[in-house]
């Protein structure tokens, strides 16, 4: 003021540069939001964060947000009166509608969305002066694992070098420790409390270290209960069916698994390529499961409507876990040309050793999910000259795991993003010549995802001798519908205890055929739940023995570390074979990674009565 | 020119005009609070929000330029509710003193009070803040009571954009904005010229002129004069030749304040002299109220009529001029004269006194 102002490269607020680490911590605090937190409390915290960002210029944001946050605090504290919700809504609408910038209007919009999304929770706070049933924190990894595997427990066992015990700790809730060590999407890591300090624990990597050191088929399963002489039929020998078989067998029931294909494993054998999950490693899990008790395997037996009726009449209980085996097709000109095939068909044939030969061919893959990546990387290994993935959204919108996309690119797969396949060019002999795509540009967000819009650009021609369609899978539910079981959007209906909604009353349903195509761990979780409920349906209440205990915890190591990531074999080497691409941790890496675990099973909410998600 | 519609009525608006400007031009009232023409238009109070056909959310009329074909609604139940809520938030942002402005009525009511009356806003029930912030009043002319401040930024615009003094700033500190008014004990060390344009811009009385305190006790009024409301009498500031226009606030026959008026040279601005020292002398007991002529007999100044006094002055100057020549006379004009007065004065000196010896102490 009054003096000559010289320009400076320094920010006006000297604190800005130093705020970087605070921002990072703030983000990690949000990312680690503990599962089970009261949504109203989370809304209040979000509002406070919004109010803290106001510059102070405008009334709705500057005075409105703190006022709204104070009202919501009262709701959180269950001291608000009956009119509080309407007052909050009116104020939030005013802030959303009259704020000058996004700091104000987005904060209010987020609150209004929360108000609608969590109506039951807000009302419970006001009417019953309490949270709804189920609200309350529990161990993050264990809670978010669909099978509620005791992750802190087996991490601590691995830290102590007790790998076999770690395998059995996993098995208590999941008989596929090896499968999940290789291909699990690890939802357990999503809100790992370690994020507060540095990064989530590499839980999958630690499990891989355990099964590498104690292969599942060398670790004895826990003792089974006495024979009940009850029979359980399981339709489908995939992760869900075999999990159900394992627990039913441990409970003493006599299990028969009907599998249409030649071998057990379902999509783990007939969908996931061997370079991601070597077959011999899958067999370790399966051998472990089959040792659990009386399990009769009947492979190559497809269950049709007649057979299903017989089974339902013969067995005391039935678990239908047929998965989603039918590849979806694209309805476009030329889709029936020679060379066009469904992803699941190709991967399925590979499961029984029938590898394709794409030597010298141009291969195009349609889709952006994990199956599309599996196809593309398989095509590379099958000798293809070029492999392109055509996807109508952007790379960041692909539903495939980012690591899968990266690995495919490293192996030479070209990601043709923002390309919507419109037709297939066919030569005179009916063979596929090229995939024709309409370029897209990314548009507004619809249902939570940015939607592509046709771009004002000419069509793109991708030479292709082979087109692999990987745009999702359907469920072949017809035989079961014929038995009176109902479906919604092609999925078999069941209640939340997995009891089939209709049809024979001793039938349970779970896994992909009930949820639509999902993940291995979700299928496993369903198999476990089905086994428990079948046990109860049969009139029992078996406890599955677990003869392992989690070691006593050490004090938290608060030193921030980098997260140990599993590395892969060099792309130029691995692209030529179907061997495992990923390399496990070394002992020192595993020890450091295990040492980062904060043992939320002992510290914090995990030590309280309702802090665990464990079955007895 | 843009063809727009305001409340269904076709209006032709200047290109680049705001919705508020276009509405005011055709006499449509849109309530405003933080907006002050030629001072501040930061669109912070959101009281002037209006609805525009096709826009999902209301927009501030003061800061939104018109577009051709725009269809504007200036009043609706929703807008009325939003305006009330904005005022209620403002009223309850501090303690009881600010909240109580909602119920003030009458001649001395602040702009905020009048707006609350217009929009039917009551004193908010649940004001729990206390008037805890210390009043800043080291400056002899101006004071700042942060407990009444609504951070509308009008004073900031007045001091910076309009007066270009850059001595009063707002501290943008999130929910805890404060005006840095340079009126503390160290006021002499600041660049503040005590012009008071900030106080004139203030809609709540947080910034106020000490010479014109709202709570002043009633003064003795000249007999027979009783004003129900203050009258504002437009005049030219007598302090220098710039010719600033001001309005003297007259109550019960007595000048109680001055405020800048829209004039070609001052655009409603005033300096410290014009605002705080341009009227006190009017009612000074030392003030001469009739001409005085020194009596040759007694040697004392004695009251005379204007004619008598002017006759003495005219005859003596005529005699001196005829006797000694015009060059013997010099004419010196007081700086507290308007340009027009000084012009006439030099004209008189040249034509009547026949002298070119002319000067003035006006050095502003």
Present the secondary structure layout.
The complex is a heterodimer of chains A (616) and B (364).
Chain A: H1 15-18, H2 20-31, H3 39-52, H4 59-76, H5 84-98, H6 102-117, H7 119-128, H8 140-144, H9 151-159, H10 163-171, H11 177-183, H12 203-213, E1 231-235, H13 239-250, E2 254-259, H14 267-270, H15 279-290, E3 295-299, H16 305-314, E4 317-320, E5 326-327, E6 340-342, H17 343-351, E7 362-366, H18 370-381, E8 386-390, H19 402-410, E9 414-416, E10 419-426, E11 432-446, E12 449-454, E13 460-463, E14 466-469, E15 473-474, H20 478-481, E16 487-488, E17 491-492, E18 507-509, H21 512-515, H22 520-537, H23 571-574, H24 587-595
Parallel strand pairs in A: 1-2, 1-4, 2-3, 4-18, 6-14, 7-8, 7-14, 8-9
Antiparallel strand pairs in A: 5-15, 10-11, 11-12, 11-13, 16-17
Helix pairs in contact in A: 3-4, 3-6, 4-5, 4-6, 5-6, 9-10, 9-12, 9-24, 10-12, 11-12, 13-22, 17-18, 18-19
Chain B: E1 2-6, E2 9-13, H1 19-25, E3 49-52, E4 59-60, E5 71-73, H2 77-91, H3 96-99, H4 111-119, E6 142-144, H5 154-162, E7 169-171, E8 178-180, H6 197-201, E9 207-209, E10 231-236, E11 245-251, E12 254-260, H7 272-276, E13 292-294, E14 301-303, H8 306-324, E15 331-333, H9 339-351, E16 358-360
Parallel strand pairs in B: 1-5, 15-16
Antiparallel strand pairs in B: 1-2, 3-4, 3-5, 6-9, 7-8, 10-11, 11-12, 13-14
Q: Which tags fit this structure?
A:
heterodimer, A: 616 residues, alpha/beta, de novo design (two linked rop proteins), B: 364 residues, Ubiquitin-like (UB roll), Alpha-Beta Plaits, N-terminal domain of TfIIb, five-stranded mixed beta sheet, 9 helices, 17% strand
